[in-house]
Amino acid sequence: MSKNHHKVIIFDTTMRDGELTPGVKMNLQQKITISQLLEEMGVDIIEVGYPASSQKDFDEVFHISKIIKNSTICGLASSNSNEIITLAEAIKPAIRGRIHTYTPVNLKNQSKLSKQEVLATIKDSVSLARNYCDDVEWSAFDAPRSEPDFLCKSIETAINSGATTVSTPDSLGLASPEEFSQLLQMIFNRVPNIDQAVVSVHCHDDLGMAVDNSLIALSCGVRQIECAINGLGARKGNADFSKVVMEVLKQENYQLGINTSLMSKAAELIFQITGIGKAK
């Protein structure tokens, strides 16, 4: 094992998923301030926006890509080739850029043909992203509700096509820690090339389990946690950044590169911008 085996990668989506919080919008200047603080904190990956969704998001990702030097700048795209190309343009100025693309994998009640089509879409979209960027993350959208065989095949296909990180999101925030742990253990046991990528989780807090699910994932072999400051995010929000960091630090066998002395400053900044306080 490499000496980084136990390094936990922190992926912050305060600015991307955080803008899905009802009533929350951030402007370019606010996002610059947030991203500079995240970089100062030592956040590994900063997800800034969804460039194909609006000119606003494109401009934010592009501008922040020029400013940030140490953290990896990331944007989101569906498996639509135009969205991936738009995202590739947006992160072009970044010293370290990442393309994050997702494909819905909950195909219950669908025909075998449509499953083959989805696998082809995963292959094509991840391969396209890799043409533009060496750092590609692929997310299995709605993973907990998808068929286990198809989920495993989808993840295997994404890794074979060049995904360097694969994420298993609890997209609807409905998995219990036991269910989520079983899902992840199955993936690690059944996806033959799983050790060729970093495995990530992105947990929503609809049942109040986002932090618990993120932490239990580490013991299954997950090495990246996606979270947001003050738990911002769609519906009930994402795993709360500072809670995740503090809980990981309590466990001696993991390393984190986060400067915890700046976390309260970050929580206060997000509160000032959004009016949403630190998750209790």
Fold blueprint:
Layout: E1 9-12, H1 28-41, E2 45-49, H2 55-67, E3 72-77, H3 81-90, E4 97-104, H4 112-132, E5 136-141, H5 148-160, E6 165-170, H6 177-190, E7 198-203, H7 210-220, E8 224-227, H8 241-250, H9 263-274
Parallel strand pairs: 1-2, 1-8, 2-3, 3-4, 4-5, 5-6, 6-7, 7-8
Helix pairs in contact: 1-2, 1-9, 2-3, 3-4, 4-5, 5-6, 6-7
Count of discrete domains? 1
Tell me, what's the shape? globular
Structural class determined from secondary elements: alpha/beta
Strand content: 15-25%
Give the ordered list of helices and strands. Answer: EHEHEHEHEHEHEHEHH
What is the CATH superfamily label?
Answer: Aldolase class I
Tell me the major beta sheet. 8 strands, parallel, barrel
